[in-house]
Amino acid sequence: MVRVLYVTGWCRSGTTLLGNLLGECDGVVHVGELRYLWTNGILGRGTNTLCGCGLDVASCPLWKGVVARVAGDDPQWHAERAVRLQQAALRTRHTGRRLAEARGARAAHPAVAALAALYTAIAEESGARLIVDTGKFPAEAAALCGAPGVDARVLHVVRDPRATAESWRRAKEYIPAMGAARSTAYWTGFNLASERVARAFPRRSLRLRYEDFTADPRGSLARVMAHAGLDGDPPADADGRADLSVNHTVTGNPDRLRRGPVRIREDDAWTRTQPVPARLVATALALPLLARYRYPLVPSPARPPDRTSRDEEKEGAA
């Protein structure tokens, strides 16, 4: 039985750092956003083709071994098929159908068996006892809850929608910018779909707010580790300091390539920099869920960073 911790929610919520921290635990491999192994790593259609180890995904020894196990002598054909299955069955709109399959109400889509086979290959190639996938697609989490040979746990990570909208206002190396209305629409859709998974499988699901994680990194990591069946000490000290080693994330935030000491802290600069119209749009669209996730209608402005904070920022941020 392959154990997987699948992280759902919307992007720009600190899940890359969270996954890399969990990857520091004994017997854990963080694979990043595994969904993009085929499009970015094998087909080369994305702009984020590096493994977290610094090599191209197709050249990384771990991923070469995994791909050989599942794709045999024709990885291109297998990758094309995998992408077609993802588009046909593992988008957010498919969450309800995958949940019905997971509960035994209908026959499983072929994409589910393909997904299970990929995780099995990762476990065999890496020797890990837990695979952390920060893909954030609720349909994949739903599929895993009913996948053969998979013991799935789901972690739903939530961040203030105004913060994620401000982060999306600026393009990153591998993805273009997005407006506040579109970002918040995705935020709402992904979080509502994640809630559906949690209602269907409450014992397998845990919700974590980004703000709670950054306020108490060690305590939050302990909760997540217990949920995932991990023992040992959380990989962060009482001050939120940690040390990151090499990882094998297939894609995600470029910060996944960072190694060495980091400081886990909340990135609240958005409370000072976000334009008022964008904040009003994000607040209005997310209004039905703000209270549910304990976010204020009017966020408190953050204090300007002092010199100490600027020095810490060089070490790493969430």
Automatic annotation (TrEMBL):
Residues 296-318 are annotated as: Disordered. InterPro entries: P-loop_NTPase (IPR027417). Pfam families: Sulfotransfer_3 (PF13469). Keywords: Transferase. Residues 304-318 have a biased composition (Basic and acidic residues). It comes from the Bacteria. Transmembrane segments: none annotated. This is Sulfotransferase.
